TrEMBL record:
It comes from Drosophila yakuba (Fruit fly). It comes from the Eukaryota. InterPro entries: LRR_dom_sf. The gene is Dyak\GE27517. This is Uncharacterized protein. SUPFAM superfamilies: L domain-like.
Length: 209
């Protein structure tokens, strides 16, 4: 009886949480989650690398997903198409490489509160700032946490240009690999309680306090 209860608890944990770190991901998904009913119960999914086909399966079947971390730690450089991410409409926490296809699909996630835009071998010839600004503007009343990697920036970042002061729910901001210029207006909302700089350089740090 005890073994049966333990198996049930482990099965329940698998049904709500899954972490996939390495390659041959489509085969692994088919082994772990052979039944789409299990996919539909997933709440949290962390992926190190995945094919586009497997990602589409996740979007199509994981309608109750609340946290999706697409890390691609293997550095495969795959350009993921996320236009179907709106099917996971319950997503609250999202980590993505910035250079995904159709990144503005993020704007359709009405419940999104925590967003991480990760560096992923970005071409410095591409200006990603309009995309970042469009996402921030669309989610300005919902974002509570934003993590931003500025490795791709070719010029110092004036933080006020991100228009974070309009993000009225923002409490946590984490910046990494950014060369910060002087802000020409208050860059953060009064709601912001925590700000983190990692491997950043700045001329006048007091203007961010």
């Amino acid at each position: 009886m005890a073994d049966k209860l333990s198996a049930q608890r482990n099965d329940s944990r698998l049904r709500t949480q899954c972490r996939i770190l390495h390659s041959k991901q489509t085969d692994l998904l088919s082994q772990l989650l052979p039944n789409t009913q299990v996919l539909r119960k997933l709440r949290s999914l962390s992926i190190g690398s995945i094919s586009q086909a497997a990602l589409e399966e996740i979007f199509a079947n994981c309608s109750q997903l609340e946290s999706l971390l697409l890390c691609d730690r293997t550095g495969s450089g795959v350009l993921y198409d996320i236009r179907s991410i709106g099917l996971c409409w319950m997503l609250k926490v999202l980590l993505l490489p910035l250079n995904v296809g159709t990144p503005l699909a993020i704007c359709s996630l009405v419940n999104l509160t925590h967003l991480t835009l990760q560096r992923q071998k970005l071409s410095q010839e591409t200006d990603w700032m309009p995309t970042v600004l469009a996402i921030i503007h669309a989610k300005r009343f919902n974002l509570q946490g934003l993590s931003f990697d500025g490795s791709w920036l070719i010029a110092p970042l004036n933080l006020s240009h991100l228009q974070l002061a309009q993000c009225t729910a923002l409490t946590d901001l984490r910046l990494s690999n950014c060369k910060l210029g002087e802000a020409d207006s208050p860059p953060l909302p009064f709601s912001c309680q925590r700000i983190s700089f990692r491997r950043c350089t700045m001329g006048k740090p007091l203007c961010y306090i």
